Amino acid sequence: MAKEKKKKSELLSWVKSIVFALVLVYIIKTFFFAPYMVEGVSMSPTLHDQDKLYVNKIIYSLGEPKVGDIVIIKGEKKRYVKRVIGVSGDTIEVRRDQLLVNHKEIKEPYLNRNKKKAHSLGVLLTEDFGPIKVPKGKCFVMGDNRLNSTDSRNGLGLINIASIEGRSEVVIYPFEDMRQTR
What are the BP-aspect GO terms (predicted)? Predict the structure, then answer.
């Protein structure tokens, strides 16, 4: 009788531990960190098609996105991964392949490879546009592969900050290409 009671107690302890672990995983995944898979080439060469990322979901409950952040945006039918180029109050413009934020040139070393490729084809990587003033509660995003990206310039428009799910932190797969994304 005592042995049977001990077995039931031990089984109940295991069930409680497993339920607790599952609840903890659910809370962490829902509110703190979540996996995400890149679909498409709009962020190449920074991120590649089928890269698997971990996304920090709590960061923007503590503050707003910053210029340069790589973010996951919840669209109507799918999610997008893009780089924040401008935030509320910024004026965004591109002239002769040079990004200007609030009339100051912004260096984008992550674009060097794509710029060389575009220039070898006799085109600019980023066509001229703007100036565009980013209103409160919105941000302006672009993909790093500017020749092949649906973003704030051509389809997504200005992004509601509330639709940003989180910031990309690290590529976790493929393992040989594991790296931070910031």
Answer: signal peptide processing
